[in-house]
């Protein structure tokens, strides 16, 4: 099977996954107590007014009809070509297009995820390697301890501590938002502020947006690094015991070649799988991180909209999350084939 | 060793390639110390072949690995000397040891299926090896040399860009042998090089090793649990049991006049095609628990000639003929300790 057909198959397979996800979110939202209409009117409202509202939102239709309306909107190609985003319905709270809101919030989450991942792997993988190389020594125990503590600490706790130290006491870093409010964000090209400001050649904006990214991505990255440490260490310990590693040593190869070219490259496969899976967890963590750091991403969007029982908005955000996770696992699978020649066919 | 003057040339030339003196290798586990190799001494001249025979767990692989100082964790060299070209390597710093490995002493492992890096092409294995030890060689040159080696091993040079999983077990072992001889070492240690292969390939691989050894004038240490293979191909033979060297002799001597009861039993368990009425015997029992080895001679619980003294005292390695040593009380209580 060629790479092309492999990718196409994988993409097609994500469709039923997403549909299932969507159906579950659709049902769960409607089972939850509270409804968007009564939450829309702060105090008691006129029953007639509420009835009109219900009609406006299409909530007077039977559930299955609402469901099929929603799916039909989602696959509306004309809408997509006209707006540049899929028809995810109108928000039940603000009556704005959910697609537009989700698409503009997503880059913030993506940017946070990318930098957190970079921090987590830059910290976790080398520490895991060092721990495995100094197996059972004090250093090994220290690194493992660090991994356990960072993994166990809750996002909001670590986030607040970092905000207190670097924001409140030291005044070094901003404690929230994607960019200093006095700076105009860079024009949207990719939606990632750090990338867009560089594309624009504006280093002030790059500096400001990077500064804002440090604390939230450090919080999330530190927490994820714990898993990376454990995973790298365990897999390295297993790989270092294998014959081809001993055989490489027996040929007098340098220690760095043996550790990285032999052991880590082979230990990397399970690490890569985990990285893919962790992305889903990262997004869950992002909800908390975004709330802690007033980060205007998809996670905070969901939290805000849940309070209003904004069904369409939550469905839209979840679809976006689902697409993202599916995309990442696709990339991981392709990388897998790149790292391991035995998978290439 | 730097005191060589021209008048000593003759002496220096006679210096054995490998000299092992009362070597001890221990595994320090949490349950206690295992003395995997005990008081082993022997030497090997250039171009000689030495066979190490013994059951699994007898310490023969540990002995082999200690010569390149790669005894796996938690193993340590507990005492003795390993001299290569007169230089003791036991206390050598690791980076100096690395220059020895591959160039002076090479190692061929048991299972070729797992001895090559699965994510590296065959060519990369060779280029990396050559350029680690000879940094001045260009990548292209190393590549050409690798192709020549492959050709000599009977592998199409075009396959240099293939990955290990694209080769059969026998071919992979050829590649492992090629990697071992690529830098023309003085000594190759082959640790059960054919155990993982099927019988037809086994003989071919051993023949290949033998012809390369002659062509490159290397010494060879052949480690095997199969005494028949060793008898067929080695000048000197060491029989090991539970970490001890129990017998040492020339190949013909050992075959004709095995002295230790263990060696005798091993020989009786080899089928001989010429003896139609041969009775194959197995050795009763199993090797001892190395954490709690028996007192006295380690073989006595399985020996048919056990005497009272065997249970309490460990026999010394005594000389019973020219180049023939045995560690057994049947040949005298005190004996003359070797050297």
Account of the 3D structure:
The complex is a heterodimer of chains A (345) and B (339). The N and C termini of chain A lie close together (7 Å). With 345 residues, chain A is mainly α. Chain A folds into 2 domains: 3-98, no CATH class; 103-339, MetI-like fold (Orthogonal Bundle). Chain A has 14 helices and no strands. The model of chain A has no long low-confidence stretch (mean pLDDT 86). Chain A is 75% helix and 0% strand. Chain A is globular. Chain B is of the alpha/beta class. Chain B has one domain (18-119, 163-270, 278-331): Rossmann fold, CATH 3.40.50. Chain B contains 10 helices and 12 strands. In chain B, the strands form 2 sheets. Chain B has an 8-stranded mixed beta sheet, sandwiched between helices. In chain B, helix 4 crosses helix 5 and helix 6 runs parallel beside helix 7. The longest helix of chain B has 18 residues, at 199-216. Chain B is globular and about 65 Å long. The model of chain B is unreliable at 1-12 and 335-339 (pLDDT under 50). The chains are: A mainly alpha (345), B alpha/beta (339).
